[in-house]
Design goal:
Rossmann fold, alpha/beta, 19% strand, 36% helix, 569 residues, Alpha-Beta Plaits, seven-stranded parallel beta sheet
């Protein structure tokens, strides 16, 4: 029977429409986020899609098909199509039908029934990775092929529940401090403890691999330290850049009893392998030429690691997937603010790192005061007449650059900066020429990929201590940048429609403010161009997390208005 006051319309193609202007919007959104993916988020109706991967992540988290169907029925305006419940049951019931387990020293692929075993054995691509068929439902797997078997079976629509256990790794006793070296009280927050406990799973075979999803600024590093403390074993930590490497090392020394002699930095500057080794993805994927091997992959065999942590796992480079597939006997933890990958290799993260083990909605942590309350603005500016013809005749990629570097953006930027002159401002962009013009105009420091690590650290420290109020930064500031006092971010250009980049950039200003003030995120886009189209795509993930963008033209000067007086859309 129809329920007109409900906000959902469930369609037979597994897409779900959600009305934004509905009293039940937030509850329905939070329910959907457990098993569906946001696809589009215009002003009034958001589109979600139920996918096999979204259902397998839900199943891995313990959600049952009946609970998914019940959630849809609870918020749907109309009866859900008959095929939806059947497909949800079909996909979710596949999780657990294939298991990898240990019998003595042997690695076994166990199938739930004879028919499934026949299908697997008949598949030539899978068969190449199997050593033998033991009986009607069990097959012998080469331990070195453990990851590749999971990868290829997922490609064929059969997720594998890996409960074969893990190597112990070298022992490394240490404790978490109750007071940091800096003299501050320290203990894991409740959600950080929950995340660590869920991953660890009492040390049993049901834990030990997977991804923890938490907002930027919520302390994912603390979750990693909590898991390391549970395991008490040698750990390899992989990070997106040198700044992140050194932040990990500083946090470990500040908040644990680990000593400098036990922690090694493995980067372009230093190559020390110790019981705790922190390395960059960049050094791992360096090679002398395209024909040669990745010589730094040897770090994976340098010690008997008991845990590998992939910080910002959504950035894991494709070559590292290959080596990750061969080390499945090592516990693997992925940390990220978003499972979105712009190369669409989310399924590889699922099969090789593990399913999503824990997440918390961003707005929930905002409500609890663990991350700052943020207001997001999209400021739309016109393209000057002098550029309109040039824009019209260019090919798409060039079109975007013309719109992204629109000189009118500088005029608006200067007004926003002038209004926020007492705040701590990050100006973030993609194009270096544009950023140099902005830095010169504001007489502000500019940090790019060419800025040396020492100079970069000096500028970040100046910003942290209030000596620098405005920093202009390129994409190097997207990830693992700890600037707790930043409270205004202005985005002038981005990496096309990158949803994870938008989330990371907002994350630069989400550390809770001492005075409880709001964080403000401005995105300046050129109206009626590819810049605006990509802007809409970039906002998808944050919209799913409950953020709404105030859409305004430059002449409305919304930066001068109190947020509560604005109409968010």
């Amino acid at each position: 029977m129809p329920k007109p006051s409900n906000p959902l319309i469930v369609q037979s193609d597994k897409s779900v429409l959600l009305e934004v202007d509905n009293p039940l919007y937030e509850k329905a959104r939070d329910s959907l986020a457990r098993f569906a993916e946001l696809v589009k988020s215009p002003e009034y109706v958001h589109t979600y899609r139920i996918t096999p991967l979204s259902l397998w992540n839900a199943a891995a988290a313990g959600m049952k098909p009946d609970a998914v169907v019940q959630a849809l029925e609870q918020y749907a305006k109309y009866p859900i199509p008959g095929n939806i419940a059947r497909e949800i049951l079909d996909y979710m019931s596949r999780y657990g039908q294939l298991s990898l387990l240990k019998e003595g020293d042997r690695l076994i692929l166990s199938c739930a029934n004879d028919d499934l075993a026949e299908e697997i054995w008949a598949n030539t691509k899978v068969r190449e990775l199997l050593l033998d068929r033991l009986d009607k439902t069990r097959m012998l797997v080469d331990p070195a092929q453990r990851g590749f078997v999971k990868q290829i079976l997922l490609d064929f629509g059969h997720p594998v529940d890996d409960i074969a256990g893990y190597v112990k790794g070298e022992e490394l006793p240490f404790e978490l401090r109750s007071t940091t070296l800096g003299g501050r009280p320290f203990k894991l927050r409740a959600y950080q403890q929950d995340a660590a406990a869920t991953f660890y799973a009492g040390g049993g075979i049901t834990g030990g691999s997977g991804v923890v999803v938490l907002p930027c600024g919520s302390g994912k590093t603390m979750v990693g330290m909590g898991i390391m403390h549970e395991l008490q074993t040698s750990t390899l930590i992989l990070c997106p850049n040198v700044v992140a490497v050194r932040q990990w090392i500083a946090e470990l020394l500040d908040k644990t009893t680990l000593t400098p002699e036990q922690i090694g930095e493995y980067t372009g500057d230093n190559k020390n392998v110790r019981p705790i080794t922190v390395a960059t993805y960049q050094i791992l994927t360096w090679r002398r030429s395209r024909e040669e091997e990745f010589e730094h992959f040897k770090i994976f065999e340098a010690r008997k690691w008991g845990l590998i942590i992939y910080d910002e796992v959504h950035l894991l480079p494709a070559p590292v997937f290959r080596v990750t597939a061969s080390i499945q006997a090592t516990r693997r933890l992925g940390l990220t603010a978003t499972l979105v990958r712009e190369d669409e290799r989310e399924e590889d993260v699922f099969s090789l790192i593990g399913p999503k083990r824990y997440d918390v909605p961003w707005k929930q942590l905002e409500d609890q005061g663990w991350i700052a309350t943020a207001v997001c603005y999209e400021i739309r500016v016109d393209l000057p007449d002098s550029l309109k013809r040039k824009y019209a005749i260019e090919e798409d990629r060039r079109k975007y650059r013309i719109a992204a570097e629109n000189p009118v953006k500088l005029e608006v930027l200067l007004k926003i900066v002038a209004h926020h002159q007492k705040d701590n401002i990050l100006i973030i962009g993609m194009y270096l020429d544009q950023l140099k013009i902005i830095a010169d105009e504001l007489e502000a420091p500019l940090i790019t990929g060419k800025t040396g690590n020492d100079e970069r650290q000096e500028l970040y420290d100046g910003f942290r201590h209030g000596k620098i109020k405005t920093l202009v930064v390129s994409k190097v500031a997207n990830f693992a940048l700890d600037l707790p006092d930043a409270n205004v971010a202005i985005q002038v250009s981005g990496t096309f429609g990158s949803r994870q980049e938008e989330a990371q950039r907002l994350g630069r200003i989400l550390r809770p403010k001492v005075d409880g003030s709001l964080a403000r995120f401005y995105s300046i886009v050129t109206k009626d161009t590819r810049d605006m189209d990509f802007g809409a795509k970039r906002q998808l993930f944050l919209t799913e997390q409950g953020y709404q963008y105030v859409i305004a033209s430059a002449d409305e000067e919304v930066w001068k208005q109190a947020p509560e007086s604005l109409c968010a859309v």
